[in-house]
Amino acid sequence: MKYIIIGGVAGGATAATRTRRNDESAEIILLEKGKYISYANCGLPYYIGGVIDEREKLFLQTPQSFGTRFSVDVRVENEAIKISPQTKSLKIRKSDGTEYTEQYDKLLLSPGAKPVRPNMEGIDLDGIFVLRDVNDTDKIKNYIDNKNIKNAVVVGAGFIGLEMAENLHHTGAHISIVEMGSHVMAPIDYSMAAQVHQHLLQKGVSLYLEQAVERFSKDGEQISVQLQSGEALRADIVILSIGVRPEVTLPQKAGLRIGETGGIWVDEYLETSEKDIYAVGDAIEFPHPLTGKPWLNYLANPANRQGWIAANNIVFGNKEKYEGAIGTSIAKVFDLTVASTGLAAKRLKQMNIPYRSSWTHSNSHAGYYPDALPLSLKLVFDPANGKLYGAQCVGYNGADKRIDQIALLIKNSGTIYDLMKLEHTYAPPFSSAKDPIAIAGYVAANILSGTMPYVTWRELHDANPSEILVLDVRTKDEFLMEHISGAINIPLDDLRERINEIPKDKTIYIYCAIGLRGYLAIKILLASGYSNAKNVLGGYKTYWAATAPICNNPIEKNPMIEQNKNTPTKTLKVDACGLQCPGPILRLKQSIDSISEGERLEIVATDAGFSRDAQAWCNTTGNKMISNTNEKGKYTVVIEKSVPQREQKANLSGGHGKTFIMFSDDLDKALATFVLANGAAATGEKVSVFFTFWGLNVIKKTKKTKVQKDIFGRMFGLMLPSSSLKLKLSKMHMFGIGSRMMRHKKRG
Ligand SMILES: Cc1cc2nc3c(=O)[nH]c(=O)nc-3n(C[C@H](O)[C@H](O)[C@H](O)COP(=O)(O)OP(=O)(O)OC[C@H]3O[C@@H](n4cnc5c(N)ncnc54)[C@H](O)[C@@H]3O)c2cc1C
After folding, report:
1. Is residue 648 very low, low, confident or very high in pLDDT (cuts 50, 70, 90)?
2. Residue 643: CB partners within 8 Å, gap ≥ 6?
C-alpha cells in the first residue's frame, strides 16, 4: 500500500507516524514544501522574544531523524501542485523547479492555513511581517536583531497577536495593539477580555480597540500606521496578525468539495468528497458538536487528533469517527493566563440560542497558603437544564486545569450540576476544599433555581437610574475608595439594623466586591419581604473591569507616581497576598496607622484591584504613593505616610493668601468673585473661596448623585436653581437672554 501525506507539521507528521505504527510494510511519502517538518510552530513567538533561547529547540525532528525512526520517505522542499483523483496521481515540484509525478493508493492532506494579508496601500513595505512558519520567524528575528526597535505595532489581538505583543515587549519595545473588534481575544466575551485590557495597560501596552488600519506608509526610517480614525502610529516594526484562512488551493483545483466556511469538506471519517483522499487540521471544516454547524478551528490539538484518526481510517478502512472539537484554547498574556472552551455568550446570542451566564472570582488555591492568586471564571449554560455551553477563565495559576476539566464535561454533555459533583485533588498549595469550578457550579445552580435573583453587569450598566436603587453592601472604606455612581452604602454587617432605609417599592440592585456578600444581602432582604432585590453577578470586580475606560496611560508610566527607589528611613513590609478585597486595603490602612509620618509601607497583594484601590486610597487620604508595580500577579505598592490633605487647613486669615466669600447665586456676582480669585491666584497667592448656602448653587453640577431628601430638602430643590447653568443675572436677566449673553461673552 502506498500512502502520500501532504504537509509535514502538526496533522501531517502525526498521520505519518501513526500510519507507520498501523502498517509496518507500507510505503509512506511525506511531502513538505518548506525546509522543515515536525517543528513547534506554537513556540515561534517565544523564540522571537528570547524566551526560547536556541533555535534548534524548535525542531522536534529533522527530516533525516524522522525518516530513519519511522521509515518514512520525507521530501522537504517538495510541493504538491496538482491532484488527479481519477488517476490517483500527484504532481510535485521541487525547489529547483523540476516537476515529477507520484501515484498513491491513499492520500492525506494536511496543508494548514495561510495568514490573511489584506490588499492595502503600503502592505509590502519593509518591516511589516506575518508569522506562520520558521521562515517568517527567521525574517522577524533577523530584522529585530539588526534594527533598533523602539516602537512595535501589532495589528490584530488574537492569540498569536498577543503572544507577539508580549514577546516584542521583552525586547524593550513599546507596543501598540490595534484591533478592529471591541475586545482582544475573539473566543471570549467582552467582560472577561476587559480584565486582559487592564492588564495590558498596566504593562504599558497601548490599546487601540474598534480601530482599523487604513494604510501603511514610510515615514523616514519608520512606518506610519494610518488608522481609519485619523490617528497615525509610528512603528519600527509591524506584525500583522489578523487571522488565517484554510489553505485549499490544491484540493479546490482538484474539484474536492469546499464547505460553506471555506474549509475542505470532510465526513465523520475525515474523508473528503473524493474517495481515498482524507484531510485534517487547519484546512478542514467540521460540524461543531454543540451547534451542529460547520466551523473552522485553528488549533494544534484537533490537528493532531484528526491526524491520528485519519491514519487509522486510511489503513483499516472507515471505522473510526471524529467527534469534533469545541474549541479549547489557552494563551499566556504577560502574567495572565486566558483559557476558554466551548461557546462564548456572544456566539450563542448571534445564533439565537438561549443561555445564562455566571461570573465568579476565586483564589487559585487556599488564600492562607502563600501565593494564592485570583482566578475569574465565566460559565455559559442552557437555562432549561443547565447543560454547559462554554467556560472562560482569566487568572494567573490553574486556569488551564479548570478549563480542561470543564472541556471534558462539555464534550460529554455535562451540566453545571456536574461541576458541583466533580471530585478534585485538594491540598492548600493546589486548590481549596471547594474548588473555583465547584463554586462556579453552585452559583450557576442558584441562578437557575431562582434562589439568587440576579442582574448582569450589562443590565446594571444599561439600567435607567431613576428606576433602580443601587445598594453597595461593601464596607464604608471600600465604598469611599470607589463605587458605582449613584449607589448608596449599607455594609452587609449593618444591613439588618438599617433595613428600613431601603424602600420596598423600588428595584434594588445589590453589589459587593465579587458577588458573595451581595448574595448574603439578597437572602436578608428576601427574608424581610423585599421581592425585587437582585444581586449583581461577579460584583464590582466584574462591573469595573467591563466598564473601565481604555486609558493608554500605564500605571508604570503615570507621572503622578514618583518612581523613587531611594531607601527611606524606615519601611514596614506587609504581605497581603491571598486576601480578597477588602482584605488588602484594610491591611494597608491598619499598617499605615501603625507607622509614623515620613516612614514608608511596602505592601504586596494578589488582588487584581489592589493597585487601583491603593492609588484611590492615597488620593483620598493624602498619603504619598511612591511606587506601584506588578509582576506575575503580585501588586506591590510603596506608600509614604503623609499628613492628610484634608488636615492641611486653608490659610483663611493673615499672612499670605486671600479668602473670597461667595454669598450670592447671582451670575454676575459669581463671575466677579471668580475673576477676582483667579487674579489673586495668578499673583502666586494661596486662594480659598468659601461658599455660603446661596453661594453653593454656583457649583451645582448638572449630573447629580441621587440622595434621599426629606420634604424640606425637596422643596428647596424646587425653589433653588437646579444647576450652575440656571443661575440668573441680578439685573437685565430678561428671561434668560441676559445670562446667556454674559456666558457667551465670558467664553469668547
Ligand atoms: C505562531 C503560531 C503559534 C501557534 N500557537 C498555538 C498554540 O499555542 N496552541 C494551539 O493549539 N495552536 C497554535 N497554533 C496553531 C497550530 O500550530 C495549528 O493549528 C496547527 O499547526 C495546524 O496543523 P496543520 O497540520 O493543519 O497545519 P500546519 O502545522 O500549518 O502544517 C501545514 C504544512 O503543510 C505545508 N504545505 C501546505 N501546502 C503544501 C503543499 N501543496 N505541498 C507540500 N506541503 C504543503 C506547509 O508548508 C506547512 O508546513 C499556532 C500557530 C502559529 C503559526
Report:
1. very low
2. 597, 622
Q: Is residue 565 part of a domain?
A: no
If asked whether residues 341 and 444 sit together in one domain, one would say yes
Q: Is 551 a catalytic residue?
A: no
Residue carrying C-alpha cell 522571537: 48
Query: Does residue 557 fall inside a structural domain?
Result: no
How would residue 734 be classed by pLDDT, with cut points 50, 70 and 90? confident
Count of other CB atoms within 10 angstroms of residue 324? 19
Residue written as grid cell 484562512: 245
User: Which atom of ligand 1 is nearest the CA belonging to 45?
Assistant: 1
149: confidence class by pLDDT, cuts 50, 70, 90: very high
CATH number of the domain residue 366 falls in:
3.50.50.60
Of the residues 6, 35, 41, which should be mutated to test ligand 1's pocket, given the most ligand atoms within 8 Å of the CB? 41
* Nearest partner of 378 among 354, 364, 360, judged by Cα: 360
Query: What element of type H or E holds 739?
Result: helix 737-747
pLDDT recorded at residue 557: 42
Residues with CB under 6 A from ligand 1: 6-12, 31-34, 41-42, 44-45, 79-80, 110-112, 131-132, 160, 247, 250, 281-283, 298-301, 303
Q: What is the average per-residue pLDDT within 497-510?
A: 95
d(CA 216, CA 230): 13
The answer to whether residues 155 and 202 belong to one domain is yes
Whether 42 and 188 map to the same domain: the answer is no
pLDDT at 743 over 80: no
410 and 352, same domain (yes or no): yes
- Tell how far the Cα of 702 is from the centroid of ligand 1, in angstroms: 58
Nine cell digits for residue 260: 460553506
Q: How many domains does the chain have?
A: 6
| pLDDT for res 549 | 87
CATH no. for residue 611? 3.30.110.40
Which structural domain range is residue 726 located in? 656-747
Those residues whose C-beta lies under 8 Å from the C-beta of residue 700, and which sit 6 or more positions away, are 721, 722, 723, 724
Q: Which of 4, 14, 30, 42 to mutate to test the pocket of ligand 1 (most atoms within 8 A of CB)?
A: 42
- Assess whether 224 and 251 both reside in one domain: no
Residue 602 alpha carbon to ligand 1 centre in Å: 47
CA distance 330 to 400: 7
* 233 and 266 in a common domain: no
* Same domain membership, residue 471 and residue 429: no
Of 449, 480, 513, which residue constitutes the final position of a domain? Answer: 449
Structure confidence by residue, pLDDT tens digits, 715-727: 666 677 878 878 8
Written as nine digits, the cell of 469 is 436603587
Q: Answer whether 284's CB lies under 8 Å from 257's CB.
A: no
Q: pLDDT-derived band of residue 568, with 50, 70 and 90 as boundaries?
A: low
Concatenating the DSSP letter of every residue in 45-101 gives HHHHTTSS--GGGGBS--HHHHHHHHT-EEEETEEEEEEETTTTEEEEEETTS-EEE
Distance 133 CA to ligand 1 centre (A): 8
Cβ pair 380, 348 in contact under 8 A: yes
CATH number, domain of 725, equals 3.40.1260.10
From 282, 316, 350, the end of a domain falls on 316
Say if residues 263 and 250 touch (Cβ distance below 8 Å).
no
Residue 122 located in a structural domain = no
| pTM of the complete model | 0.81
491 cis-preceded (ω within 30 degrees of 0): no
Asked if the structure places residue 321 within a domain, the reply is no
Within 10 A of 115 (CB to CB), how many other CB atoms are there?
Answer: 18
284-334 pLDDT, tens digit each = 999 999 999 999 999 999 999 999 999 999 999 999 999 999 999 999 999
> Which CATH number does the domain housing residue 521 bear?
3.40.250.10
DSSP designation for 512: -
pLDDT classification of 484: cutoffs 50, 70, 90: very high
Whether 289 and 371 share a structural domain: no
Question: Quick one: pLDDT at residue 156?
Answer: 97
